[in-house]
Amino acid sequence: MLDCLTIRPNIGGKKVIGLLETHKNGFRFSSNKGIKVEFTYANIRNAFFQPCDDDLIVLIHFRLKAPIVIGTKKLLDVQFYQEVGNQYDDLNDQRNARRMMNDFDELE
Fold first, then answer.
1. What does the domain layout of the chain look like in residue ranges?
2. Less crowded by CB within 10 Å, the N or C end of the chain?
3. 40 vs 28: CA distance, rounded Å
4. What is the side-by-side strand order in the sheet with 36-40?
């Protein structure tokens, strides 16, 4: 069971966060808004796991044999990801430089 995952493509054009569960015969994604997506192990052609070595997300990608319907679209590729990177401030950014010009500690 993996929690706080986002499904891609987005369902309904919005970012949907939910829970990916493994069962005896397949996977089930349940969102906090009540949306459920299910597919069986027999329908999975390829499965890829991408750790966050050089990227800001951890990704699980499934390529399916037969399309499933999510919303109104038939899809052969389904991805689940979680953002693990932290945002940072670029000190060379001009917007930040203007804001820090009034800070005397930064001028030193």
1. 2-107
2. C
3. 9
4. 36-40, 26-31, 17-22, 2-8, 73-83, 57-70, 44-50
Give the C-alpha separation, 90 to 44, whole Å: 42
The answer to whether 21 and 27 have CB atoms below 8 angstroms apart is: yes
Contact 75/82 with Cβ under 8 angstroms? no
Domain 2-107 of CATH type 2.30.29.150: yes
Distance CA 27, CA 5 (A): 13
Convert the pLDDT of each residue in 39-94 to its tens digit. Answer: 999 999 999 998 888 778 888 999 999 999 877 889 999 999 988 765 554 555 55
**pLDDT of the residue at 67:** 94
Nearest of 2, 7, 1 to residue 23 by alpha carbon: 1
**What are the phi and psi torsion angles at 40 (to 5°)?**
-90, 160
